[in-house]
Write a structure and sequence with these properties.
BirA Bifunctional Protein, domain 2, 11 helices, 3 domains, 7-stranded mixed β-sheet, SH3 type barrels, Arc Repressor Mutant, subunit A, binds biotin, alpha+beta, 14 strands
Length: 327
């Protein structure tokens, strides 16, 4: 859409002006078409100054999600973008679109989900005020390495938050992103296998980040364990800024996976706040208390039980909690 291309050009200028003539040449359209797109953007709330001979400059942007906000030809993740106001689940939407000829890098973002899904079959409350993003990846690696993507994604979310807000959250094993003991972001990684050969067809990494929600938005059940950036820091980035930072971080992940395994493992261990804590390990109806002593080189959590024995737990089989609460 011309609107998105014009917006992407203005954003790439970083606030510096660009002439209507230059835009019409770059995009292969008339100056009148550029002008019309500019007026449309202004009506949506974009503040665009214009000065004779200098051109148009983007001064301020509304909190809108659109491909023009997120396009970046340097990224593979997000090379195809779908921006929605509402969807059942961005993971579901990626899966619906993940037919064989869709290249990896498709990303779906939404301002709200009506059927957000969490790990272990739970639902994920997804009101407006959050950002919900899923990306389609096709990693080239043995199947046994793929489950580590869930831990890598948590490091990527920490990278994105740090890049935008200058603070680095922690990770509750395996992949809840935590601020002040409450969940800032949840991640659900799903994969699709070939029926007959069990070869990996694709992976969907789905991320929900809390930006401006209030206690009332989360509701009484979720509010005690969730936190939004506005609650944590008194301010939150625009949804499009958060989405762009997540796409940047996922793109780095996609390039590094699995070749840079040791580096990401080291980063994961540095971010993981579960390490060193007494935790409750929940396996079905069984609960056991132990101390989290290590993240092994497959991103499994090594727990030491009261009798001194150790066990490596994989994220698929158990969930962990703090002794006194969520972390
Ligand atoms: C969890 O904390 O249990 C994981 C939550 C994952 C939520 C994200 S939001 C975007 C994507 N779409 C979903 O339905 N789930 C993931």
């Amino acid at each position: 859409m011309l609107r998105d291309e014009v917006l992407a050009l203005l954003k790439a200028q970083g606030g510096a002006p660009l002439s209507g003539e230059a835009m019409s040449q770059k995009l292969g359209v008339s100056r009148a078409a550029v002008w019309k797109a500019m007026e449309g953007l202004r009506q949506e709330g974009y503040v665009i100054s214009s000065a004779p001979r200098r051109g148009y400059a983007l001064e301020a942007s509304p909190d809108l999600l659109s491909p023009g906000e997120l396009m970046n030809p340097d990224r593979r993740v997000g090379s195809r973008l779908v921006c929605l106001d509402t969807v059942d689940s961005t993971n579901n939407e990626v899966k619906r679109r993940a037919v064989d000829d869709v290249p990896d890098g498709l990303a779906v973002v939404s301002a709200r989900q009506t059927g957000g899904r969490g790990r272990r079959g739970r639902s994920f409350v997804s009101p407006p005020g959050g950002l919900y993003l899923s990306a389609l990846l096709r990693p080239q690696c043995p199947l046994e390495q793929v489950s580590a993507l869930t831990a890598w994604s948590a490091v990527a979310v920490c990278d994105a938050v740090e890049a935008l807000c200058g603070v680095r959250p922690g990770i509750k094993w395996p992949n809840d992103v935590i601020w002040e003991g409450r969940k800032l972001s949840g991640i659900l990684t799903e994969l699709e296998l070939e029926g007959e050969t069990a070869a990996l067809r694709y992976v969907v990494v789905g991320i929900g980040v809390n930006l401006t929600q209030t206690e009332a938005d989360f509701g009484p059940q979720v509010a005690p364990v969730a936190i939004s950036m506005a609650q944590a820091l008194g301010r939150a980035p625009r949804r499009a800024e958060m989405a762009a930072a997540l796409l940047d971080a996922l793109d780095r992940l996609d390039r590094d996976f699995p070749g840079q395994w040791d580096r990401w493992l080291e980063r994961y261990r540095a971010d993981c706040i579960t390490l060193g804590r007494q935790i409750k390990v929940v396996r079905g109806s069984e609960e056991r208390i132990g101390r989290a002593v290590e993240v092994d080189d497959q991103f499994a959590l090594v727990v030491e039980w009261a009798d001194g024995t150790r066990e490596a737990l994989s994220s698929g089989e158990v969930s962990v909690r703090g002794l006194l609460g969520y972390v």
